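Researcher: Please predict.
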Amino acid sequence: MKLTDLFCLAESESVFFKIQHSILRVFILSTGRCGSQTFIRACAHIENYTAGHESLSNRFGAERFDYPEDHIEADNRLSWHLGELQQLFGDTAFYIHLSRNRDQVARSFLSRFYQPGSMIDSFSEGIRMNRLDKMTRKERLAACYDYVDTIQANIEHFLSDKSRVMQIDLETIAEDFAQFWNEIGAKGDLKSAMRELKIKHNARPQRKLDLARRWTRILTVEWKNLRMTGTARQK
């Protein structure tokens, strides 16, 4: 039975625990800015698992969780979908809590403000309801710490009753990855995977001024808003 079919049966929790324990899905949960891309690049050297980074993050409904069997997925946005992870996978999956020094994570997110698709922008404006253009640097940093603490608390609570969990810290990732390799019974090129861990991926972005793109986006959104306003009045 495909996961898309299982998703429709989410109300019957017993269904999901009939998934074979030999079919292992590994979920790497984190706040983001913790080296998840580097981790997945290393996992690409595992032959008996597929590996993806935010591979289904733009999907909706059942498709959002339709990960293949024997797959390793790193996606910090899954921390907002822990209820669905519980329904679909519960204690049948293997979970990695990937973390990094709190101050370093918060300051890394501080550098991500005002970027397209920025998670910290969405959190600050959409969840905490602050106007981004009005926020001071001090307030932006406070939002980053708030975001990190919120996600950490969500993940820790979710994993508190799981039996197959491993904590991996960015500061000791080489040592922890070797243990992770053994824990999941990985087969492949461990030496190449370990070399991959020394390469930084998705580091702080080089900011580029792209007024045409930003103005196009603003005008498109406002035009659609105007059209929807007119449609609503007609109804």
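Model: DSSP finds ten helices and five strands in the chain.
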